[in-house]
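User: For my dataset I need records formatted as: sequence, then C-alpha cells, nothing else. Please produce one.
Assistant:
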Amino acid sequence: MPVDTALCSKVWNRYAWARDNGHSKFVEKADVCERFFAGDQWNAVDKAKLTAQRRPALTINKIISTLGNVFGEQIYNRAEINFRPRNGAPATTAEALTKVVKYVSDQNQLDWKRSDLFADGCIRSRGFLDMRMTFNESMQGDIVIDNINSKNVIIDPDGEQYDPDTWSEVFVTKWVTADDIAVLYDKADADILRGRDASSLPFGYDSIESYRDRFGDRMNPMYSPGPETATVLRNLRLIERQHRMLDKQKHFVMPSTGEMRPVPEDFSRDRIAWFVEKFGFAVVSKVVRRIRWTVICDNVKLHDDWSPYKHFTVIPFFPIFRYGNTIGLVENLTGPQELLNKVSSQELHVVNTTANSGWKIKAGALTNMSIQELEQRGAETGLVLEMNGDPDKDAVKIAPNQVPQGLDRISYKAEDHIKTISGVSDSMQGFDREDVAAKAIQAKRQAGSTNLAKPLDSLTRTDFMIARNMLDLIQEFFTEERILTITKDRTTGEGEDLVVNQETAEGSIVNDLTLGEYDVVISSVPQRETLEDSQFDQAVALKELGVPIPDEVLIENSRLRGKSDILKKMRGDQDSPEAQKRRELALRGAEAEVLKTEGEAKGKHADAGLREAKTALTTVQAQKEAVTPPEDNGAAAKQQEVEADIVLEDRKFEHTKEIDYAKLRHEQQLAEQEARLEAQLKAEQAATERAMRIQQAAQAASNPQPKQGTPA
C-alpha cells in the first residue's frame, strides 16, 4: 500500500483519543499490579530514603502465593465445549463440530493459553486472546489463537458491555521489524519503513517508544542500531483498527427457514445465479454493520478492507466487570501488602536500634578511641573502653526503648486483610492447624472456592465467546473436505480420524459443517490428574466393597509411569490370531453357559408342572372320597383319576426328554470345545518343536564340530 497520510492521521487521531481516555489509566494500574505481583513493591523514592538512613526495606510478597491458589483453582478445572443442534440441525454434525473444536484447541494448546489469559485478567484486570485464520501451513486455512499483551489492546471508550460484539471499535498495537512487515504485508512498504526511527508528522511521535514489556530492560535512547540489527530490532509500531461501519450487502436467503448468509464479495453475478438455481436461494440486499479492518505503520497504509470475520478477532476476559470498569484481584491487595512490608521493616528497625542504643560519655574521658570510633564500634561484643576517670560515672550506656506494644499485631492484621480481601483462606493454602477436623477443612475450602465464583464465571463467559467465534470461523472457512486426527485418549495415545464435508456418490455431504445452527454448551471438567486421583480412589473403594471393577479401570486412573504400555500389554493386540481365538472361545463358553442355564430353567419348569399334576391328582382323590355318589360305585372318580395319571405321565415324559436333550447338547458342545483346544495346543506344540529343531540345526550349521585329530 502507498503512503496515505490522510488515512493514517485519521486512524492515529482515533487511536490517540481512545488511548488517552481510559487506556493510559489502565496501563498505569497494570504496571503497579505487575510490580506488586513480581515482588517489586517499594516506591523508588521511599526506598532511597530508607537506604540513606540505613533502615531496612523488607518485601514479604504474599500476593504471589495468594494468586497461586487462585490460579490452581482455574488449572484444576478445564472447560469443555459442546454444541447442541437447533432449528432442525443434525445431531451428528453437532458431534462433529465438537470434535473439530477439540482438534483446534489441541492444535493451539488452548488450555495453557487460557491459563495465561486468566492470569492476565487476575493481575491486570484485563486479558485478551486473538483468534483469526492463518494460511501459513495449509492452503485450506487453520484457526490460530494467541495471547495478546493487554497493554496493547485499546478498547472503545464508549463501550459499556462485556461482549465485543457491542463495541464500535478496538485497536491492537504491537512492535514489529521491517522484515515482519515484508512477510505479512508488502516488501515495498517494508523498504519505506526500514530504518525509520522517528517521524516528523504530528501523529508519529508514538510510533517509536522506549519502554515496553519484553525480556530486555528499557531501551537506551542513545543506542544507535547498526545495519546488522535492522532485521531483529522491533522498533516499528503497528496499529490495527477494527471498527464497525454501515454497508449495504447482499444475502442468500433460504425460503423454507428464513436463514440468511452474506454473499461473499468475490462472487460474480453468474456465480450468484448458479447458487440460486441449484439450491433455491433468494437474494436480498440489506443494510448491516460490517467490520472495517485498517492497519497502519507511521504514515504508511498497510491494509484497508472489509474484515472477513463476523466478530472482532479480540476476545476479552475481565474477572470483575461493572459497566466498563474492569477490576482484578491484585489491585485491592496492594494496600495490605504495603502495610505488611512497612510494619515488618519497622519491627526489624526497632529491634536493630535496641541492640545499639548509644552512650553517654564525659568529655575527654575516652583514651583508646575517639567519639566517632565509639559510634561505629559501640555495639561490638567484647568492646573495651579505656577511661581517665570513673568508668561507672564517665561512661554510661543508654537504656534502649521498649518495642511499642501492638506493633507486631499490625503485621498479623495486614496478613488477615490479604486473606479476607482475596478470599484465599489458610484452608485453601493448606496451612490449617493439625487439630482441625478434615470435614471442617473441606467445608472451608468449599467456602473459599465460592469467593472465586465470579472470576471463574467470567472465564466461562469468555469460553462461550471463544466457542461462538470458533464456530463461525469453522462454518465460514472449513468448507472443503478435510481429514482431522483427533486424540481420543491422551493416556494411551489413541486417535481418531474424522472426515468432514465429505461428498458421497449420491451427491450428499456427510458432516457438512457449513449448514445449521447450534447452541454452545460450556461445562467445567476437572483436570485429568485431579480427576484420575478421584476416580482411582472411588474405583478402589468400590472394588473393596465387592463391585467387579475391571483392572484396566484401576490402571487407567492411576498415576503409574508408563501406564499406557501396561494397558496395551493387558489388552494385547486385538487383531492377532491369539486374541481372536480367545474371543471365540469366550463366546462359545458364554453360549454353552447360556444353554446350560436354559436347560436348568426348563427342568425347573417341568418339575413345577409335575408338582401341579400331583396336586391335581391329590385333589381328585379327595373329591372322590368326599362326594362319590353311591349309585355309580365311584366310576366317575376312577375315570378322572385315570385321566390325571395320563396327564402326569405325559408331563414326566416331556420333562425327561427336555432334560436329556439339554444335557446331551451341553456335553456335545463341551466335547467339541475340548477337542478344538486340544488340537490347537498340539498344533502350537508341534510348531514350537519344529521351530526349536530349525534353530538347533541352524546353530549346528554355524558351529560345526571339529574332526578327530584336528585341534579345536
